[in-house]
Amino acid sequence: MKMLIIHGPNLNLLGHRKPEIYGNQTLDQLNQKIKNHFPELELEFFQSNHEGELIDKIHQAMEVFDGIVLNAGALTHYSYSLRDAIEACHIPVVEVHLSNIAGREGFRRESVISEVCLGTISGFGVTSYLLGVQALKEHLKH
Ligand code: DQA
């Protein structure tokens, strides 16, 4: 089973950016934790601060991966082009967030991508990613 884990804008700053909200772990540590947790999966990790690069990666993923776990960062809240890419890609995408976006500033409470994702996991820090990968794995088994 091949999965792509995508991190959007500013997630390269994990561990330094608002640790009280996003935690102390760096992106490398987070990726390593996911790898250690799922040794049976073929995982690839991708981070970009650029909307177009994220869209290109989703297009390419169609041919290569069984599914995607995506933390789109702030693009979650306004990127219709990312939404369209997810809808067009025909492989399941699980939306994840470290923080509970439903309990934060008003603009974060809306996700324009949720509707085209398989499901959303939000608010559990690094565990959101682990739950996202687990949920996608179960989905792909059936
Ligand atoms: C985030 C929540 C977004 O609102 C924010 O812009 C991020 C991270 C999260 O993981 O909690 O960059 O997606």
UniProtKB/TrEMBL annotation:
Active-site positions on this chain: 22, 97
Top-rank lineage group of the source organism: Bacteria
Catalytic activity: 3-dehydroquinate = 3-dehydroshikimate + H2O
GO annotation, biological process: amino acid biosynthetic process; aromatic amino acid family biosynthetic process; chorismate biosynthetic process; quinate catabolic process
SUPFAM superfamilies referenced in this protein's UniProt entry, alphabetically: Type II 3-dehydroquinate dehydratase (SSF52304)
Record GO terms (molecular function): 3-dehydroquinate dehydratase activity
Site, as annotated: Transition state stabilizer: 17
Enzyme class: lyase
Alphabetical UniProt keywords: Amino-acid biosynthesis, Aromatic amino acid biosynthesis, Lyase
EC number: 4.2.1.10
Pathway the protein contributes to: Metabolic intermediate biosynthesis; chorismate biosynthesis; chorismate from D-erythrose 4-phosphate and phosphoenolpyruvate: step 3/7
Binding site residues for substrate: 71, 77, 84, 98-99, 108
Function field: Catalyzes a trans-dehydration via an enolate intermediate.
Summary of subunit composition and partner proteins: Homododecamer.
Family according to the record: Belongs to the type-II 3-dehydroquinase family.
Protein name, UniProt field: 3-dehydroquinate dehydratase
Source organism (scientific name): Caldithrix abyssi
